[in-house]
Amino acid sequence: MTLPVTTTDDRGYVFEAGRTGALLLHGLGGTPVEMRYVALGLARAGFTVSCPELAGHSGSFAALRESSWQDWYLSAAAALDRLRCRCDAVIVGGLSMGAILALLLAAERRNDVHGVAAYAPTLRLNGWGVPWYARLFDLVPHKSIANWFDFEERDPYGVKDGRVRALVSAAIESGDSSKAGMLKVPGGAMLELRGLVAAVRRRAHHIRQPVLLVHPREDDRANLSNSFWLQRNLGGPVETTVLHDSYHVVTVDRQRHLVAERTVALAKAVASAHEGNAAGVLDTRPTGWLARA
Questions:
Q1: Whole-number Å distance between alpha carbons of 115 and 118
Q2: Considering the entire predicted model, what is its pTM?
Q3: Rounded to an integer, what is the distance from CA 33 to the centroid of its chain?
Q4: I want to staple 185 with a disulfide (CB 3.0 to 4.6 A). Which of 29, 221, 250, 274 is the partner?
Q5: Phi and psi for 151 in degrees, rounded to 5?
Q6: Domain residue limits, the chain
């Protein structure tokens, strides 16, 4: 099955299909490539999908170092605007930092975001693969100081599957950031992530759209406590899927098929609810919307 795909001027792409859309946001230092498997699953199910490249992620280390979380947010919001021009309802999904951006869009754009899929949402870097000394970075107060430090990708690169990990490792170490993201993330960008997280924490109880949380039990970057906090503090219905055979980058790892399936179920539930509301039918579905989609 050949799907109509449009590439953008950067490394983003769009699959054009139905009137319900999905905006998928990559992680910090990542690329739209890491969202492609989920994007294909949604497109095959008849949904329009946009996977933009976030501001500051053009492949230049300097560009990422100088960018702010507000820049990332504005580029995501612009992609949402473009998608809303052709879609009646939209879900926003994201990986790691992209998941936090998706939640902020849900808080700020309640009339435009109808559901959220948060994959390994990263409020804190506290996974088993994060070295203890990295947590001392919490003491750094200013971006000018933060940029003295770099955070280098390290084995297992957030991937449990050995074959996929070898491909990711080769791509990262090739120096071509378009393949699998950057080898190093500047400390300034990590400090900006802290500001983005703070913005979401303040607004979490305002997020009342249905939220799908997908988190690996063995997350090497951000452990399950990140999703547990969101479960307790989000203001609307939450469904959580815990993966038992993946590391952090769940959209490419061993259980990526389950990530895609759950996301398609969310999109179908949102599309059904929107159609019912448009027809004047009261949506009375129980909290377990995902299981019943």
A1: 10
A2: 0.91
A3: 12
A4: 29
A5: -110, 105
A6: 5-292
